[in-house]
From TrEMBL:
Organism, scientific name: Lentzea albida
One example GO MF annotation: hydrolase activity, acting on carbon-nitrogen (but not peptide) bonds
Matches recorded under InterPro entries: Amidohydro-rel, Metal-dep_hydrolase_composite, Metal_Hydrolase, Metallo-dep_Hydrolase, OTAase-like
Residue ranges of every copy of the Amidohydrolase-related domain listed in the record: 48-399
Coiled coil: none
Protein name, UniProt field: Imidazolonepropionase
SUPFAM superfamilies: Composite domain of metallo-dependent hydrolases (SSF51338), Metallo-dependent hydrolases (SSF51556)
Amino acid sequence: MTRIVFSGGRVFTGRTTEPGDVVVEGDRIVDVGIGLDGDTAVDATGHTILPGLFDCHVHFMFSGADLVRSLNTPFSLPFYEAIGNMKATLQCGITTVRDALGADLGVAEAVRRGLVQGPRMQIAINMVSQTGGHNDDWMQCGAHVSPPLHPGLPDTVADGPEELRKVIRTLVRHGADIIKIASSGGVMSPRSNPRHAHFRDEEIAMIVQEANAAGIAVMSHAMSGDGILTAVRNGVRSIEHGVFLTDEGVEEMLKNGTWLVPTLMAPRMVLDQAAAGMAISDVILEKANAVVTQHFQSFQKAHQAGVKIAMGTDSGVGPHGDNLNELSLMVEYGMSPAEALHATTTSAAELLRLGDELGELAPGKLADLVLVEGDAEQHVKAGTLKQAVRAVYQNGVTVG
């Protein structure tokens, strides 16, 4: 096979950037070092070579927070919109994602079979919620709203351990790679409160037990302090958002090795869309405004304490393709640029249990690479990383 050498650039090692070359053969990295040779050369002079990036919390089937628009969208249109959403995400350098609600097995298989271009993905399919919880779309008028259920997207609102056992087994049958639950209320749901915990210990314990039996992990949408604690002490792998994280919650996360996926962009995306004139209810806007400051403070608390953090954005609530803005927010609120890049590469790969294949530029790993003009760490700090991406490679092949 042809050996392609990316020569003359600087290589992100996971902690720093150093001069180096990367050699790719087929879909694998075969060497990293100085002065390497290959059959074909890609001149990386003046560029940083990054591993393929991760976003651990996206929603490809969503294209914004406008409920009125979604109610007037034909059922099948989001599947076609997802094609553009996936491509926009891939083009900014994100080659692997975790879709946290919405994409069914058909969407994932379309990418896996090469029918459409997009990041490789792990899918949650739908979010498991209690009645009146963050994924219960009942409205005060008595109607149920989006997303509509269909053969690939089963109903996941359930109460009590035995109902939840059935739901988890159903999601596994439908192709879930990860189970997502809501252990608190949220911003975008009409009747839930982000400060209230959802599900009891015995319910989450059952969910985790069934997920473990299927060989998959559990991620938990968790904003309230109590909702975070209940999820962590019962074995979820990651806390999503973590807005009202307490000192006790930090201690439990450290003790259990639980990850935080902060999604700092999420409330900002809601507020930005409202400012641009999108029809977003006053209830949702009030909640989004209420969580912003606390969200950043909780991120700082977790980072300073040494909680494991992986990058995720909640893209779909807002535009796809702007995912790298999350890295700049992580730096703004306490991470170094190298730590932010680690969160979207090595750390994210570990969270998704893909560290043997991805997350680093190392021999034997899959050849996902991102060529960034200039100093990638400075671009992260300045918020210009997306604009500096010059080429993206997935499995050794450049993507358009």
